[in-house]
Amino acid sequence: MRSVRARAALGATVVVALALAVAGLAVLLVLRANLTDQAGLQAEVAAREVAGQLALDVPYRELDMGDEEDHPVQVTDEDGRVVAVSKDLEAISGTVSDRVAPAAAPAPAAEDSDADDGDDHGTGDDPARGKVSTDDPDFVNGTATVDGDRADYRFASVEATNPAGLTLTVHAGAPLAAEQRAVGSVRGAMLAGLPVVLLVVAGVTWLVTRRALRPVEGIRREMAAITASEDLSRRVPEPGSHDEIARLARTTNETLTALEASVERQRRFVADASHELRSPIASLRTQLEVGAAHPELLDVTGAVADTVRLQVLAADLLLLARLDAGERPGTARLDLGAMVHEEVSQRTGDRIPVTVSVPEAAGGFEVTGSRAQLARVIGNLLDNAERHARGAVAVAVRAEGGGVVVEVTDDGDGVPEGERERIFERFVRLDDARTRDEGGAGLGLAIARDVAVRHGGRLTVTGAGERGARFALWLPDAR
């Protein structure tokens, strides 16, 4: 089944069917047990009535066995011989004997007792009087045929002792027809009503699921339209409810918003990259064409500068592409203090000397990551500081908040507070009057922040006193 509605309806129907089957079986078992217990109680009452007569030494043929059709009775002695049965009892099963013809009765013992001691007559403590057992009777299900009608019975067995000391067992039955009729009626009603209940459950589940999934179909149609039109500005409808489907619609729209921003960012990136590449390529081509026509006019220095600029720009674009593709940083342990010293020592062409402050620390300032990428971040921050500083650039390394901070400070004009996030965007240059050769392509800070984030850190900018800017790179401590 490909339909969620069909699967939900089928699942609900199966669950309800199983629940009703279990509940119905339990009801039938409890009903049968209660009715069987009632039949057993009736059989016990009938058996004790006959047992009481035997305890009073009533002769077998004079026993009053009550309603013999409803309560067939069989009396057996200690040897299992049948000594008395109810009238019209033609067959019996389930008791100790299936005989329905009484055997020869033993001689009454009451007269012998009277002859032994006549002084005991009329006393309440006569040891020759019979008794009925007070123990719980034994119950068993069986059948009996009374006057040609065969039926199921619940038999109770009660022991009685007559005045002669003979132990007799009375087996009295109570019909199970009422129990069977009640159980059969309930079972029939359940079987007849079960399909109706299941159809109602399936129908209600289908309608409820259809109504609940209607917004999902709207979301699907809109997503299909967005895919076909490639218009990422469209959004899926959000239902007014506050359930999972509404959250799904909101999440889908948030995803579309992020995707639209990503695509727009990629388009701007491609456009800006093309624009940035066009300038050095055009300049280099012009110089080469002039040199080819007039070798004496070839500006070799300018051609090399344009080539270097083109190489740096291509390297920046390649690094950004790798970062956008999700390239993971390395896992090497690096000492940021030593790396700062190394990077500063290699900068021989800076117009302003860089002041380095790296205090002594046990174990150094170790972080985990890619040496090349982190060195690139430090170099980009120093390049930016050199570009804007008036006369001082300083680098400091310290431990802070479970990590290591590298601060690069300059005494330039600083960054306006409203522009402190924008400068980390790609191809952004706040000083539009500055030439491209002097100001770069506007990728250095964007690369620095992307690398910092990929390493689990952050890169921020604040003011440095009355003037200047302070860039702080924080990376988690490797320890």
Which residues form runs of ≥5 with pLDDT under 50?
Answer: 107-125, 432-437
What structural class should be given to the helix and strand makeup?
alpha+beta
- Beta-strand share of residues: 15-25%
Mass-distribution shape:
rod-shaped
> Please, what is the oligomeric state?
single chain
Please compute the radius of gyration using only Cα atoms: 52 Å
Largest sheet data: 7 strands, antiparallel
On the 0 to 100 scale, the average pLDDT is 84
Counted beta strands: 14
SSE string, helices as H and strands as E:
HEEEHEEEEHHHEHEEHEEHHEE
Cα separation of the termini: 55 Å
Tally of discrete structural domains: 3
Helix content: 40-55%
Helix count, per DSSP? 9
Overview of this structure, please?
There is one protein chain. With 479 residues, this protein is α+β, with helices and mostly antiparallel strands. The chain folds into three domains: 4-110 and 128-183; 232-327, Helix Hairpins (Orthogonal Bundle); 329-476, Heat Shock Protein 90. Helix content is 48%, strand content 18%. Strands 1, 2, 3, 4, 5, 6 and 7 form a seven-stranded antiparallel sheet that branches. A five-stranded mixed sheet has the order 9-11-12-14-13. A two-stranded antiparallel sheet has the order 8-10. The longest helix has 53 residues, at 177-229. It is rod-shaped.
